[in-house]
Amino acid sequence: MASVKVTEGRLRDALQRLLEGKPVRVRKSGKLSLNKVNNEAGLGHSYIHKFKDFVENEANPAIEEFNKNYDPLAEKLKSEVAEDLSEVDKLKAKLKKEIGLKEQYRKERDEAKQVNKILEQQNSSLMYRVYELQDEVRSNNIVSLSNQN
Q1: Are 34 and 20 in contact (CB under 8 A)?
Q2: I need a labelling partner for 120 at 20 to 30 A (CA). Which of 21, 46, 89, 139 fits?
Q3: Dihedral, CA atoms, 68, 47, 18, 13, nearest 10 degrees?
Q4: pLDDT tens digits for range 66-97
């Protein structure tokens, strides 16, 4: 029984947020519907229909009242202004991300250069050791041929 009351509370909170135009989980543009309230409350598909009293007594009248007063043109103007503001925010976020990526790439480049330098040193020392071993083998493999006439 407690979970039913908690779920109804979530539905009421979601409906209130949508009526105030401050949704958390869904877009605030467009007309209001039971599905939007359900999604805003974070419930499963069509779960709102299990609460017939809430739907008939609270949700449907509030949704009808909201949709009567809904003006798509005014909503579009508000969203365009919000998009302009959010465009600046989007660009700032994009710039911040690019700066972070550049720093990461520089760090990776420097690390790769350091690793490359170490590998070159190892390669040089190994090549010199190969040269030493070849020289040693040459000096030990001298065969003297004598003239036996």
Answers
A1: no
A2: 139
A3: 130
A4: 888 877 766 665 655 555 567 778 888 899 99
